[in-house]
Amino acid sequence: MVDGSLDPAVLPQPSTMDAPTDTTQKSTGKPKPHIADTVMTRRNWYQHINWLNITFIMAVPLLGFIKAYSTPLYTKTAVFAVIYYFITGLGITAGYHRLWAHTSYSASVPLRIFLALAGAGAVEGSIRWWSRDHRAHHRYTDTIKDPYSVRKGLLYSHLGWMIMKQNPKRIGRVDIADLNEDRIVAFQHRHFLKAVIIMGLAFPTLVCGLAWNDWMGGFIYAGLIRIFIVQQATFCVNSLAHWLGDQPFDDRNSPRDHVITAVVTLGEGYHNFHHEFPSDYRNAIQWWQYDPTKWFIWTMKKLGLASDLKTFSANAIEMGRVQQLQKKLDQRRVKLDWGVPIDKLPVMEWDDYITQSENGRALISIAGVVHDISDFAAHHPGGKAMIRSGIAKDATAAFNGGVYRHSNAAHNLLATMRIGVIRGGMEVEIWKREHQQGAYIKDEGGNRIIRPGAQVTKMAEPMATASAA
Ligand SMILES: [Zn+2]
Ligand SMILES: [Zn+2]
């Protein structure tokens, strides 16, 4: 198991050693395609499988579960397994992820050693390998260069990318010079298999064996089954956190925020925030949100073991949140009928308006905009007679306070009934000029935003007399 042909997914190897077929040349001189780039058939399917990872991720835990049937679970072992689950989980979240992949804080040597050992106990590959893929995941999220893109399916992002062979050349390139210079990272990478055996299995077995003589229980529950649970939990960051929940900061990519993912992943569930602000040592920004990894890092700072905790300002975070809210608002606004835009309405002569009105069409001119109230008159809250009294007249003043100062909702409703504009109509001319000068507000899609009280039919000051009504 320790030869150089191991795949890097669970055990660290330079990416060029992913598969021996990689560098093999055909006699024609054409490079043979990587197995991952060939179609899976009945004859070659076993070559597509990453057997080493299958062993570590599926077969070994399965053995653990089978053996658990005949192994009693003692309370002390159970409690230790849960504690060790948190320790090794934090090795990944506080260590691999927030310290090494994102450098969101600085850690002292003792803390880095602790995190490197704890992370090895989670059996998810070396820091170097894990962080490189994770940086590629952030840089190329949802693209072909994302090593665990959720666009390839939920199961692929959770497990598939590890149990199927990957072409290492496909994964986006990232800078890991800092990791190569970190002696603890380099040491852990070099001795990773030993670290896995010691921290993943030997250590929990020894603790349970020496302390309360439960060697087998320690091996099965705090070792094998705990590894399985911590692996599956942290894999959820790649799958569940890109599939379940809200997108309060940006919805262009897949990352999402959800409390369930946070509970499962020691606080890594506020993933939409995390992808927007990746070097923030927090995932949850509210004190009441579940982020034990953040609490751990904060405690380490209080103990003098961590420093330089990076955060984005509340202002920068709120800017992103407001923009996303605005985007959602735009999507809701665009679904509504705001009436035909003024500059798209046909122009009518005043005389034509009068003629049509007198010939039985229920038209009302307000602020130079002509509205057809035929279907609405009977439903007018102020009465049919009142509204009909405005037909064939300039009802601007009457509508704006002369008779009744209509509500914002009334102006909105009125807008949906407009059918034309009067040539030279005062308010319309002002409105049009302002529009031409770009004085009106538009959303991202170029659609007009009509603020309350800013409808063309609304007069700035309520009119005192019903002169024209
Ligand atoms: Zn992600
Ligand atoms: Zn990340």
TrEMBL record:
Gene3D superfamilies: Cytochrome b5-like heme/steroid binding domain. Residues 1-34 are annotated as: Disordered. GO terms for biological process: unsaturated fatty acid biosynthetic process. GO terms for molecular function: iron ion binding; stearoyl-CoA 9-desaturase activity. SUPFAM superfamilies: Cytochrome b5-like heme/steroid binding domain. GO terms for cellular component: endoplasmic reticulum membrane. This is Acyl-CoA desaturase. The keyword Lipid biosynthesis applies. The chain crosses the membrane at residues 48-66, 78-97, 109-130, 192-212. Its cofactor is Fe(2+). It is a multi-pass membrane protein. Its main location: membrane. Its EC number is 1.14.19.1. Residues 345-423 form the Cytochrome b5 heme-binding domain. Stearoyl-CoA desaturase that utilizes O(2) and electrons from reduced cytochrome b5 to introduce the first double bond into saturated fatty acyl-CoA substrates. Residues 13-28 have a biased composition (Polar residues). It comes from Eremomyces bilateralis CBS 781.70. It catalyses: octadecanoyl-CoA + 2 Fe(II)-[cytochrome b5] + O2 + 2 H(+) = (9Z)-octadecenoyl-CoA + 2 Fe(III)-[cytochrome b5] + 2 H2O. It is an enzyme of class 1 (oxidoreductase). Keywords: Electron transport, Fatty acid biosynthesis, Fatty acid metabolism, Heme, Iron, Lipid biosynthesis, Lipid metabolism, Membrane, Metal-binding, Oxidoreductase, Transmembrane, Transmembrane helix, Transport. Expected to bind 2 Fe(2+) ions per subunit. Belongs to the fatty acid desaturase type 1 family. It is found in: Membrane.
